[in-house]
């Protein structure tokens, strides 16, 4: 294990429907660099991950409930995708507020694939350049963001990627960004 992120606490915000690979790959990369990771969700218990949007994958224990945590509890935030996951998250005022508070505090935030949907809902893409899964791009533009077709983009503390194929670049970038703060 490296120690790039020793002493750093990272929240991974996810709900039922999270794309499994977009949860486990960043969690592993951050843990291997020494970060302490909490899976934060809308409710206690377990969440159901998916492979794609139709094939159930594993379930994961929730460490903390978003209504009971705050931005001061963590140094950084990751929002994985899956179509259903961010749709569930953006419907919850506590989850939206959690994301908004991270950005307002200047703490690094990372979202992949459909994860930027909650960034749109939290009104934090305005004036930023981001990337995402193609189906979100109109929402991002309508929210005042600029969309680019790149595997990973970081602008003003927010790192985004397009899909699971981008995970190697995404993980490398978030380790670097989280270590810098």
Descriptive report:
The model has no long low-confidence stretch (mean pLDDT 97). The chain has one domain (9-180): Rossmann fold (3-Layer(aba) Sandwich), CATH 3.40.50. It is α/β, with parallel strands linked by helices and 181 residues long. The chain has helices at residues 20-32, 84-90, 93-104, 116-121, 137-142, 167-180, and strands spanning 9-13, 18-19, 36-41, 46-51, 55-61, 64-65, 76-79, 109-112, 129-130, 146-147, 152-155, 158-161. It has a seven-stranded mixed beta sheet with strand order 6-3-1-7-8-12-11, with helices on both faces. A hairpin with a 2-residue loop joins strand 11 and strand 12. Helix 1 crosses helix 6. It contains six helices and twelve strands. 32% of the residues lie in helices and 27% in strands.
Outline of the structure:
With 181 residues, this protein is an alpha/beta fold. The protein contains six helices and twelve strands.
The name of the CATH topology is: Rossmann fold
Coarse structural class: alpha/beta
Name given to the CATH architecture: 3-Layer(aba) Sandwich
Helix content: 25-40%
Shape: globular
CATH level-4 homologous superfamily: Class I glutamine amidotransferase (GATase) domain
Low-confidence segments: none
């Amino acid at each position: 294990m490296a120690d790039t992120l020793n002493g750093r606490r990272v929240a991974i915000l996810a709900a039922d429907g999270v794309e499994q690979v977009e949860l486990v790959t960043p969690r592993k990369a951050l843990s291997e660099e020494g970060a302490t990771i909490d899976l934060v969700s809308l409710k206690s218990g377990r969440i159901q991950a998916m492979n794609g949007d139709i094939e159930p994958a594993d379930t994961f224990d929730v460490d903390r409930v978003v209504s009971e945590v705050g931005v001061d509890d963590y140094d950084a935030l990751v929002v994985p995708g899956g179509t259903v996951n961010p749709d569930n998250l953006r419907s919850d005022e506590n989850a939206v507020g959690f994301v908004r508070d991270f950005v307002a505090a200047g703490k690094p935030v990372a979202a992949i694939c459909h994860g930027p949907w909650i960034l749109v809902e939290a009104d934090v893409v305005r004036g930023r350049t981001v990337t995402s899964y193609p189906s979100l791009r109109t929402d991002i533009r309508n929210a005042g963001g600029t969309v680019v077709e790149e595997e990973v983009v970081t602008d003003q503390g927010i790192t985004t990627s397009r899909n699971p194929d981008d995970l190697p670049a995404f993980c490398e970038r978030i380790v670097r960004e989280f270590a810098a703060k």
